[in-house]
Structures are given as C-alpha cells and as structure tokens.
C-alpha cells in the first residue's frame, strides 16, 4: 500500500513540475503554438517510466507540432525533474496526446444536435391537432354534411 501512495505522490509532483515547465521552462516554440495542459501523469510502480498525457487546444496540425516539440524536450524535462525534485533516479519521460477532452467535446456536440432535433420535432407536433379520443362518426367524416340520402 505504501508503494501505491509513493507512486501517486510522485505522479502528483511530476504533474505540478511539468505544468510549471510548460509555462516557464520549455523554450521550444513548437510547444507554445497551442494551449497545452497536463491532463494525467502515470508513473510505473518501479518509478522508471512516466507517461505524461497532455491536451493541446488547436488544430490537428498544432497538436502534432506541439507533441513533436514536447518529445524533443523530453531529455530537458527529465533533467529538470531530477534537479527540481532532487531524485536519484529520474523516470524516463514520455509525452502522449490525451484525446479525452476532444472526444468529450464531440459527445457534447452530438447531444446538443439531438436536443435541437427533439425541439424541432416537438414544435412540429404542437402545430398538428391533438388526436381525439372520440370515435369517428359518419357526421364527423363528411364534415356534418350528412350522407346525402
């Protein structure tokens, strides 16, 4: 159990430091193209590997360019983590694109579209007369004209 807490604590510390580095430390202009935020950090149980999931606001091209910049900055980031966290052994850093927010936005868009379609159907239903519970009679069918007999 103590091992799990240690890994969670390390992930939290790394997330904080990476967020700080994204704002002030990484000078690669590819990284500053899009708005980058750290969404999750996963540290392996042996503390040798670290996956950093980032969300990048912008176009697909901006995302790919920013991710390339982050990957090239990984050795610098690892060195900064070692220095800032005073670690004997610093985990290997791997940046991955988190598409969770993107998928969430797509789901919200679909839900909004479904809501609009439902409102349109309800508006059309209001324009139609409500169905009557009374049985149809010959007088109702021919508009009260009688059967002409």
Structural domain tally: 2
CATH class division of the largest domain = Alpha Beta
- What general form does the structure show? elongated
**Distinct helical segment count:** 4
> What percentage of the residues does DSSP assign to strands (E)?
15-25%
SSE succession: HEEHEHH
Using the CA coordinates, give the radius of gyration. 30 Å
Give structural notes.
The chain is an alpha+beta fold. The protein has 2 domains: 2-97, K homology (KH) domain (GMP Synthetase, Chain A, domain 3, 2-Layer Sandwich); 99-128. Helix content is 55%, strand content 16%. It is built from 4 helices and 3 strands. The chain has helices at 2-25, 60-85, 100-127, 138-141, and strands spanning 35-43, 49-57, 92-97. The protein has a 3-stranded mixed β-sheet, with helices on both faces. A hairpin with a 5-residue loop joins strand 1 (35-43) and strand 2 (49-57). Helix 1 (2-25) packs across helix 2 (60-85). The longest helix is centred in the C-terminal third of the chain and has 28 residues, at 100-127. It is elongated, with a radius of gyration of 30 Å.
């Amino acid at each position: 159990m103590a091992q799990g807490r240690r890994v969670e604590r390390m992930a939290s510390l790394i997330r904080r430091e990476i967020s700080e580095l994204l704002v002030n430390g990484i000078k690669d202009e590819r990284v500053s193209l899009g708005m980058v935020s750290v969404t999750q950090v996963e540290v392996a149980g042996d503390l040798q590997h670290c996956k950093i999931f980032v969300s990048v606001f912008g176009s697909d091209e901006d995302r790919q360019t920013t991710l390339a910049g982050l990957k090239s900055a990984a050795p610098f980031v690892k060195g900064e983590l070692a220095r800032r966290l005073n670690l004997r052994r610093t985990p290997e850093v791997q940046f991955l694109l988190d598409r969770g927010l993107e998928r969430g936005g797509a789901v919200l868009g679909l839900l909004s579209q479904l809501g609009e379609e439902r409102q349109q159907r309800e508006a059309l239903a209001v324009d139609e007369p409500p169905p009557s519970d009374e049985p149809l009679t010959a007088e109702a069918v021919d508009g009260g004209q009688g059967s002409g007999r």
